[in-house]
Design a protein that fits this description.
Elements (H helix, E strand, L loop, with lengths): L2 E5 L3 E5 L3 E6 L7 H24 L7 E5 L4 E5 L3 E3 H7 L4 H20 L2 E2 L8 E4 L5 E3 L6 E2 L3 H18 L4 H15 L3 H20 L1
Antiparallel strand pairs: 1-2, 2-3, 3-5, 4-5, 6-8, 7-10, 8-9
């Protein structure tokens, strides 16, 4: 019997312990035909990106089945704890938090080298694998393909914002490690981080205006 594990604005997630089923929610405010096309396109797109990641051996769930007509995506269940929970429970042990955040930076660099922009990088969309003790990324529903430095910088900016919002006590130290890991693994790190600083300045300007 499947158990609902998440019920968000975009989809309902349920699991039987081995797989996770993502059922995209109908939007009543949209025209039915448009809603159907959008949900079908997004289901197909997410499955395609997860397939690309699987071929590159990137740590993300594997797709087990896709039903475009019903807008249902079935993926591998990743056993473990959300990184949000791991950071919260180890907040006083900085070595654990910093090690994990450096690994996150390395994984984001890997993702960007594949030209994949996650676009929802939060610690609730990452899992520390129960057995492998490796960070896995989940929920690629908003992801897209891009070579643009700007898009990669914005991806990192969203992660910084998530850390500041959910882990404000350790956010600065953690994000410094994210950037350290990113810099070690990304050939575009210098350009991306330089653009990141510009993105941050734009954000502060908008808040002040």
């Amino acid at each position: 019997m499947k158990k609902i594990i998440s019920q968000g604005a975009e989809a309902i997630l349920s699991t039987d312990g081995k797989t996770v089923t993502k059922d995209r929610v109908t939007k009543s405010y949209r025209h039915p035909a448009l809603d159907g096309r959008l949900r079908k396109t997004r289901t197909r797109h997410e499955a395609k990106i997860l397939g690309m990641l699987m071929q590159s051996r990137f740590p993300a769930p594997q797709v087990t089945s896709v039903d475009e007509e019903k807008m249902v995506l079935q993926i591998e269940h990743i056993p473990g704890a959300l990184i949000k929970q791991v950071l919260d429970s180890n907040e006083k042990d900085s070595s654990v938090c910093l090690r994990i955040c450096k690994e996150i930076g390395e994984k984001v660099a890997w993702l960007h080298s594949l030209e994949v922009i996650h676009h929802d990088l939060t610690t609730s969309n990452m899992i520390l694998h129960e057995k492998k003790k490796e960070v896995f990324f989940i929920d690629f529903g908003l992801s897209f393909i891009s070579k643009k430095i700007e898009d990669k910088a914005v991806d990192l900016h969203l992660l910084l914002h998530a850390l500041q919002s959910k882990h404000y006590r350790i956010a600065d130290a953690c994000f410094a490690e994210v950037l350290a890991g990113y810099s070690e693994k990304s050939k575009q790190a210098e350009a991306v981080i330089e653009r990141l600083h510009l993105v941050e300045k734009r954000g502060r300007y908008k808040q002040g205006s």
